[in-house]
Amino acid sequence: MNFAFSEEQEELRNIVRQFLEAKSSEADVREQMETERGYDPDVWAQMAEQLGLQSLTIPEEFGGQGYGYVELIVVLEEMGRALLCAPYFSSVVLAANTVMQSGDDAAKAAILPGIASGETIATVAFTEPNGRWDESGIEATATNDGGTWKISGTKSYVIDGHTANVIIVAARTAAGVSLFSVAGDAGGLTRTALATMDQTRKQAKLDFSNVEGTLIGADGAGWNVLSTVLDLAAVGLAAEQVGGAQMCLDMAVQYAKDRVQFGRPIGSFQAIKHKCADMLLEVESAKSAAYYAGWCASELNDELPAVASLAKAYCSDAYFHASAENIQIHGGIGFTWEHPAHMYFKRAKSSELLFGDPTYHRELLAQRIGI
């Protein structure tokens, strides 16, 4: 088993990094995080048409390229590094994975080609105001009204929920948790953009009042699909966190070399050396966890649930620590709005809580390995 990336995967990384350095610079991120939409449609179109990023893991029969999860990890790591403002995670990692895991060929044919081409922005709405990430947190209901499914309830913290054309909703039927596809402009659906600490990733509250939906997969089989998707999403987020943590480390080390105090670079002081060394250890360990989880995700093997929780817990802690230490090493300037350190700190905090915090995932890990 070789955990080094292939030449093709490294080339993919280089191409994505060059593109994001040009299209997702600090100035671009600041511009998009101030808008309600939260992304640049022109850049989104270029991602689809020039690089084919949206179609990366979608099967060829549905307009995709059919690559595996390891390639997706490479792309997500670079996006985390650049703090890309785009509905990529919601559309590709959440929605496309949900449709692909559902086994519903009609849903695949209806939704995946649009995601692959970049025309469809999609997301998954499953968390509710109760803030729970597990099956018991899904309280929205769906009833079959003469052959038409009607959904009622409230979903919160829905990533890109206010701009998505397609929303995959988890709701309870008589048979249990089921998944439904809902149009973004459906009647009875009220979408409210939420004010978030991390402005680079937009979230929304969705209120459903007898909204028509199309069943995806089998009635009552939704949680089986969703639990796998949440594992895949945790792995994808871990890769993003690794990219951001590496960027924080790079920024801190460069500043420690450049900043002169008492006639010498601050990186020569032992306290700063120790901080940078601790950050390096955590970032490298986080990479190992995220890459191994990515391999498990590409194989969809039995280890995935445990390794996904392990990677999410460890990478969350590593990113948050790296982003905080980056601010400390920068000193006074690190606290200013003009410096990008706070943007990584806020993304680290929001990613730490997304899909469950490290404590939740350690508990999950203990359950999954039978402790």
Automatic annotation (TrEMBL):
Position of the signal peptide: none
Keywords: FAD, Flavoprotein, Oxidoreductase
GO function terms (MF aspect): acyl-CoA dehydrogenase activity; flavin adenine dinucleotide binding
InterPro entries: Acyl-CoA_Oxase/DH_mid-dom, Acyl-CoA_Oxase/DH_mid-dom_sf, AcylCo_DH-like_C, AcylCo_DH/oxidase_C, AcylCoA_DH/ox_N, AcylCoA_DH/ox_N_sf, AcylCoA_DH/oxidase_NM_dom_sf
Pfam family name, one: Acyl-CoA_dh_N
Domain Acyl-CoA dehydrogenase/oxidase N-terminal: 6-119
Cofactor(s) the protein requires to work: FAD
Protein name: Unannotated protein
Gene source species: freshwater metagenome
